[in-house]
Structures are given as structure tokens and as C-alpha cells.
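Handout, section B. The chain below has 154 residues.
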Amino acid sequence: MESMKIISSNLIFKNIEVSNNEDALKFLGQRLFDEQYVKESYIQAVVAREKKYATGLPTEIYGVAIPHTDIVHVNEPGIAIGILNKPVKFIMMGTDDTEIDVKVVFMLAVKEPQEQLQLLEKLMTIFQDKNILNNIVDLSEESVSDLLNSKLKN
């Protein structure tokens, strides 16, 4: 994973207008499918998995979500990032019903289980840095891609 650029600027979407978390998941899943990162089955699989295993995470400045699903639905590794115009409710990871307002969604498409674990660990470190989180919202898509790829390589 270190040598690969997993976040492409063409998979970073800013000011997305959605009314709920399922719309956000479908939007990003469709973009991954359009770019052939995932199979068509990925979209419904990620929606179903989010209902069963919530991925919302509170951070110091805004909520994030890291939806993902089984590797069988993935063609090639990538991450779609959606910065929402207005936060939507996601259930907090590890709970059944605690809602948090999520502003940024990192949708993961990973081919190897070990890669997924490493990626999740690196993302958790990123989410603890409020400067990086602010930059994700404020910088251009290309700059966000460069920033996150450099952080994910470390």
C-alpha cells in the first residue's frame, strides 16, 4: 500500500448536497463504480453494512464516517471522499443508536483484509489531527489528495 496513490483527486467531492447518510453512501459508491474501482454490488453492500456496523466517528471538530464493505465487491483499491454541504446523521461506531453529525465521509474500497486494517489505523491517526481535518474541508481536491496520500504513506 505504501507505494500506491490510494486517494485520487477525481474521487474527492466537495459541497455534496444529501439529505441523509444513505444518500451520501449511494453518491460516493456510485462514483467509485463509475470509475471502476468497485463492482455494482458494492453500493447496496456498503449501505447494508453501514446499517449493521455503523462507521460514524466523532472528532474534535466534526464527525467523520468510514464506510466500507467486503473485498468481494472491490475491483481495485481506492478511497472516495465526500465533504458534505451540511452534516448528516450517522450512527457512531460501536453503538446501536448514538447519532453524530458527519461532515466528511471516507468511503473505502480495499482488496486485502490486512490492507484495510492498516488503512483504518492510519485514518484514525489522521482524524486525531484537527489541522488535517480543517485542510480536508478547506483545500482544493488536488491538495487534499496530495496531503492525505503523504500521510497514508508514513
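Note. The mean pLDDT is 94. Compare this with the example in section A.
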